[in-house]
Automatic annotation (TrEMBL):
Record-linked SUPFAM superfamilies: ARM repeat (SSF48371)
The name this protein goes by in its record: U3 snoRNP protein
Cellular component annotations (GO), alphabetically ordered: 90S preribosome; small-subunit processome
Species the sequence originates in: Coemansia aciculifera
PANTHER family: SMALL SUBUNIT PROCESSOME COMPONENT 20 HOMOLOG
Length: 266
C-alpha cells in the first residue's frame, strides 16, 4: 500500500509539472519527478503511461507554459538516458510527439524547442531501431501516397519534409541512409504539386479566361473555399518546402565533400 501511495503521489507531481501556474513550481516538479525516475523502477506499464502523458501534453496542453514544460522534461530524458534502456522505450512516442509539435504546433517557442530536440533524439537513438524504423516508414507511407490529395496525407508529407530539413545538417554523415527516403518524399511532393497546379489552371482557364494568365495574383487574393486554386495553394507551399529541404541536403553534401577534399590535401 505504501508503494502504491508513493506512485500515486508521483503521478500528482507529474501532473503539476505541466499544470502548475508558476515556472518555479513546474521546475521543482520536473526535478522531483525526474529524480524519482532515476532512482526507482516504474515498470513497463507505468513507464509507457508516463511517456504518453508527456508527449500528449507537449503537443496538446492548452497553455504554452505546460507544453514547454513537457518538452523540457523530454529534453532531459533524451540527454540523460541516451545510452540506457529508457530511451529506446521513449524514442517512438517522443519522435511522433516532436513531429506533431513541429508540423502543427501554434507556438513558435514550442516548435523551436521541438526542432532543437529532434536531431538529438535521432542521434542518441541510432542504436535503437525504433526511431530508424519510424522515420523510414513515415517517408515510405508518404511516397506511396504521391497521388493522394487527402488533407491528412498533405499534412504528413509536409511534416516529413520539415523534419528532414531539421535533421540533415546535425546528423551529418549519419543522414546518408535516409537519402533514398528523402528523395522519394521530395519527388512525391513535387509530383502532386505539379499535377494539382495543372488541374487548378485548367479550371481557371475554363471559368475565368481573363484571369487565367495571372495565377500568382489569383493565389494572393484567395479566401477559403471560393476558388479552385485554393487546393493548389497548399501544395505550392509543400513544393517550396520540398525544394528548400533538398537544397539543404545538397548544400550539406557539398560542404562535407569540400571538407574532405581540404583534409586530404593536408
Amino acid at each position: 500500500m505504501a508503494v502504491d501511495s508513493l506512485y500515486t503521489l508521483l503521478d500528482g507531481i507529474r501532473e503539476l509539472m505541466i499544470t502548475a501556474q508558476t515556472a518555479n513550481m513546474r521546475e521543482i516538479c520536473r526535478l522531483t519527478w525526474f529524480q524519482f525516475l532515476m532512482d526507482y523502477p516504474l515498470g513497463e506499464r507505468r513507464l509507457t503511461n508516463a511517456m504518453t502523458f508527456i508527449v500528449q501534453n507537449a503537443s496538446g496542453y492548452v497553455f504554452e507554459s505546460g507544453r514547454t514544460s513537457a518538452l523540457e522534461i523530454m529534453s532531459v530524458i533524451v540527454n540523460r538516458f541516451a545510452d540506457e534502456v529508457l530511451l529506446p522505450n521513449a524514442a517512438e512516442p517522443f519522435f511522433l510527439g516532436l513531429v506533431l509539435v513541429i508540423a502543427k504546433g501554434d507556438s513558435s517557442k514550442c516548435r523551436e524547442m521541438a526542432a532543437h530536440l529532434l536531431p538529438k533524439l535521432i542521434w542518441s537513438a541510432e542504436t535503437a531501431s525504433s526511431v530508424l524504423v519510424i522515420d523510414s516508414e513515415l517517408s515510405e507511407k508518404v511516397a506511396r501516397a504521391a497521388s493522394n490529395k487527402q488533407q491528412k496525407m498533405h499534412e504528413l508529407r509536409r511534416a516529413v519534409l520539415q523534419c528532414y530539413g531539421i535533421i540533415i545538417e546535425p546528423l551529418g554523415d549519419r543522414f546518408a541512409k535516409r537519402v533514398p527516403a528523402l528523395l522519394a518524399v521530395v519527388d512525391s511532393a513535387l509530383s502532386v504539386s505539379l499535377k494539382t497546379w495543372k488541374q487548378a489552371e485548367a479550371q481557371l482557364n475554363a471559368g475565368q479566361q481573363a484571369a487565367a494568365g495571372d495565377l500568382e495574383k489569383i493565389a494572393a487574393n484567395l479566401h477559403s473555399g471560393s476558388n479552385p486554386h485554393d487546393k493548389e495553394l497548399a501544395y505550392w507551399e509543400t513544393a517550396y518546402m520540398a525544394l528548400n529541404t533538398f537544397g539543404k541536403y545538397v548544400s550539406a553534401s557539398l560542404q562535407r565533400a569540400m571538407g574532405e577534399a581540404d583534409g586530404s590535401r593536408i
